[in-house]
């Protein structure tokens, strides 16, 4: 008979993912061990292995969870009824809000995706492509005259700003996430001349 799942399975799994992301972000994909992750999570190695058969499975689930939550947040923020510029700003704001308290997950995504086997990388890339397509579609609405070969570089330049924000942004600093969403949107659409305080 199959073992029934505990009522708090999801909460425990999320706590393990968060602890694992912290260890992997600090130690790196190669140096982090299941023992370190179990210690950080406050669980036994046996319980950790009950949830995940190995470190590779943890890395994949951290990245998949992070990107699925980002995809959901961006989808929820996307309002086709908004003017294109406001729609883009809403998407940028959703990304920045989703990145709140997710630095470790983000670092694992950036450094761990190349370590995944091809089928898992393909699954991760499919989620990333959905997110990028949504942004490209809105950028196309903002600038219908933008030549097709330039759309992807513009889209990825915007993601370049957003994906590396964890390196310098500090909550409670002089620029809020809302402020930076305005700045990033203005920079990509208007250049530095469009940035206003």
Structure description:
The relative contact order is 0.10. By secondary structure, the protein is an all-alpha fold. It contains nine helices and no strands.
Task: Summarize the helices and strands and which ones pair or pack.
Layout: H1 9-27, H2 34-41, H3 45-51, H4 55-77, H5 84-98, H6 103-112, H7 118-142, H8 148-163, H9 177-190
Helix pairs in contact: 1-2, 1-4, 1-6, 4-5, 4-6, 4-7, 5-7, 5-9, 7-8
What's a quick, concise take on this entry?
By secondary structure, the chain is mostly helical.
Q: What keywords describe this structure?
A:
single chain, Tetracycline Repressor, domain 2, mainly alpha
Identify low-pLDDT runs. Answer: none
Classification by helices and strands:
mainly alpha
Coarse shape: elongated
**DSSP strand count:** 0
Strand content: under 5%
Number of domains: 1
CATH fold assignment: Tetracycline Repressor, domain 2
Task: Compute the CA-based radius of gyration.
Answer: 19 Å
Name of the CATH superfamily: Tetracycline Repressor, domain 2
Give the terminus-to-terminus CA distance. 63 Å
- Class, according to the CATH hierarchy? Mainly Alpha
Q: Give the helix proportion (percent range).
A: 55-70%
State mean pLDDT (0 to 100 scale): 92
Q: Largest sheet, if any? A: none
CATH architecture: Orthogonal Bundle
Treating each run of at least 4 consecutive H or I residues as one helix, how many helices? 9
Order of helices and strands: HHHHHHHHH
